[in-house]
Specification:
The chain has 178 residues and is of the alpha+beta class. It has three helices and seven strands. The model has no long low-confidence stretch (mean pLDDT 88).
Length: 178
């Protein structure tokens, strides 16, 4: 019986030694930089393609929009006259989100508004950026490119990957956060 245990120990030891000696593919630094640069170029191309797509959509529907340096497009339908939104403020708002095709995604209604603390996450970064351009009582439309929304993979429920989103927002209440 002891000889079986020894053979098992030897077998396990050999397997462990063999597993530790797996070959490693070495990549030189120049090749790694080339791959990184290719990813950067592809991302820049995709961002520009989305911006062109949004600009063509805006021209078709006749909306006058401001574009931020990050690539968020904002159409202010009604400027607010209340508190200006900034980081750490608690904001209640209604919204309806759709794809550029008009396909419905999500909403928050007057009966059940969305409440967030700006700068703390929990919503698309494009929504936070857009809210910081508004005041209490404002109504606006945000056109959110994928890199400020749900990215390459979407939300895997209602928003496909690489989707531009339209958010129609009405700011209900703005309060100083805690």
């Amino acid at each position: 019986m002891i000889s079986i245990d020894r053979r098992l120990v030897v077998l396990v030891s050999m397997l462990m030694l063999w597993a530790c000696d797996t070959p490693v593919q070495v990549q030189d630094e120049g090749e790694s930089n080339q791959i990184g640069e290719q990813f950067i170029r592809v991302n820049q191309y995709m961002q520009q393609r989305h911006q062109d797509h949004i600009a063509a959509f805006l021209e078709r529907v006749g909306w006058n929009a401001e574009v931020t340096p990050s690539g968020l497009w904002i159409v202010v339908e009604k400027p607010g006259n209340g508190k200006r939104i900034d980081d750490n403020m608690q904001v209640s708002y209604t919204f309806e989100s759709t794809l550029l095709t008009g396909e419905f995604c999500y909403e928050a209604t007057m009966d059940n508004p969305k409440r967030i603390t700006v700068g703390k996450g929990g919503v698309e970064s494009g929504v936070e950026q857009g809210l910081k351009k508004l005041s209490e009582g404002a109504e606006a439309i945000f056109l959110i490119p994928p890199h400020l929304g749900h990215g390459n993979f979407g939300d895997r429920v209602r928003i496909p990957g690489n989707s531009v989103l339209i958010y129609r927002i009405q700011v209900l209440k703005v309060e100083q956060g805690s």
